[in-house]
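Honest question from a wet-lab person: if I give you the sequences of every part of a complex, can you actually get the arrangement of the whole thing, not just the pieces? Trying it with mine:
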Amino acid sequence: MNQQDPDNLIQRFLADEVSPELVEQLEAWLREDAAHARVLAEYGLLEQMMVGQQVEDDASSVLALLLEMEQRAEPIDLNNTNQEGQAADWHEEKPALSAQDLATAGSYVLRHSLTPKAIAALATAAMVLLGVVLAAVLLGGPGDDQPVVEGPAWPGETPDTPRSVDEASHHKPIVAALTAEHDAQWRASSGAVLPGVGDGLRAGQRLSLIEGFAEITTNLGAVAILEAPCTFELLDHPNAIRVDTGRLVGIVEAESARGFLVRTPHMDVTDLGTRFGIDATLSSETQVHVFEGEVEAVKPDAAADTQPTRLAAGESARAVADSGVIASIDHDSERFAAVVRTKIQLPGTGQGLGEGQPDQNWHVVAIDGAVLDRHYPVSVSGDAHYSLHIPEDPTTSQFITWLPNTEPPVGGSITYSFRTTISVPNSADPATAHLVIRFMADNELVAVRVNGHRLEAHGGAFLEAFDRWDELVVGEHLERGENTIEFDIRNHRPDEQSASNVGLRVQWELISQTSVFEQHNQAP
Amino acid sequence: MSEKSIQPGPAEERSFTEYWLEAQHALGGFVRLHIRDHNLADDIIQEVARQATANFERYDPSRPFVAWLIGIARQRMAEAFRKQGQQPLVFSTDVIESLTVAYAGLQDEVSDRMDGLRQCMEKLNDRHRRVLDLKYARRLTSGEIAKQVGGSAGSVDVMIHRLRTALRKCINQHLESRR
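Yes, you can. This is the full assembly:
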């Protein structure tokens, strides 16, 4: 990189001509030398100072306002705070100090960078008052006359998520909508209108679901299914909800909805594109169970730069009161009634057939990856050595094999592709559908293909002892309706004259999780 | 990480306001490095202030205050990007750490740099000052600025590019002269 490049990169970055390639080049340069980060930081600081420089003249008027206010105001004891961490006397009237004054000055101080002279003057002449101003404005201060609802203390409660009654939220933006109900009964505070399907829900709106299920969809597309009894509140954000008590199942499929935040008394959970359940029914703990994808969990009172705990599908964790730890627990998706777990038993190989009978569900369609001219039938093997340790059972499954008289005239290792089709019913959710497969193979399984997508899979090679099952879970590329599944079985054949059966035995089931609403909406 | 800009000690010994006034420019520098929309940057900074105030008792004074603020700012910026449906195009964690160290180191120089900027601005001609005023005070786009001062949006971009480079160089010379 020559001497011209860094400046050019920085200027393009500052001019908002940002691209992944530019960021990559800039990062490479920044990593070359720690001093380079300082150069970029200086440019950022220059931007900040330029904004501040342009408003410098206004600072004197703010200083004058603050000093005037100081002369009028009585001292306020900031240490006198309540449990919420808010100044206890915010709502007490201070006639000499109007809320408008505080808000005006405080907002100015926050929104604009004051010059050193202004800072020095403010710091020495009006530091105490500034503290009041900043605290008042930052914490939501005078003029914010939303009544506070009585309720349990929330660890890590911040003023940007005020616990306000429904009426107070009327002027706030709509951040979500009630998109479905199932046997739902609501309870709202006095005077509040109970929500109906299709209604927009506003930031700060707090609702109690006392019976049934409700589906909330945030403005960014995250779906939250709430299970009664549940009390929750929409946060002032297009993709966040707070659950005081109850269970929630989060479904985040839209890309825009990634980052869906669920705040609970003991844990904040941020989705990373997933399905998960949150159980906040106990006051002493909150649990999160990840069904699919990943989430990040963090204690609400954790330091801002705390690394969140990342949980993947099948993992669960809980956070308890008075502990800073998010601990791993056993996975338990069954506790969420909003999710219906569907299990469909699929026919095993050779099920219901006698020895030598063809299994019409299966065919060999390729050898060593080369597609055959037709789909060759397979039949129940009946080879006694397959049943030496685990007897074959016509009621569940038996080994199926390539018919000997159609064996190809080659020797060595040959891979046979056994194909079948399965049906994923409309009632099953393909996003969560997965096949749980128990199998044995002669000699071994080397891959599985789902609708043409090859998935690496190995197993079944038991040195021909066939004394145990191997297990495999396949959850990718399944669709509603008919799906083509292929098992690639590699068989070792000494030479082209020797017979060497290829065999496959499968017992399997299709499992999916479906929300109560998806199940009702789907055709049978 | 440089910690010279913060005097370690219990958080309660120094008020939030003192910390904030000291660190706000460095925080602003970090935020504006990533966000070109001045109004959005203002909102982010204000949100950081709001959250930092509410959680001030959790600040560990053994660490630079500005590093704590930048940690909060990263979360707020990520939220803002998501809210706008944008892919948060941010630096890698190690680069962010380097920038955080750099801003902590710059914090002590802010006052001198502001003095330097003021003096350097006086050396600019009227047209240059007007362009900067239109960009940073009135927050106009390059196209809007071009309509007022003449030329094309591209020529305004080039001028701003050169002004930034010149001002940074001038400010650093000012600092050198005072050492």
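Two things worth pointing out. The CA atoms of residues 178 and 197 of chain A lie 5 Å apart. Helices of chain A lie at 4-14, 20-32, 34-54, 56-72, 99-111, 116-125, 127-138, 516-521.
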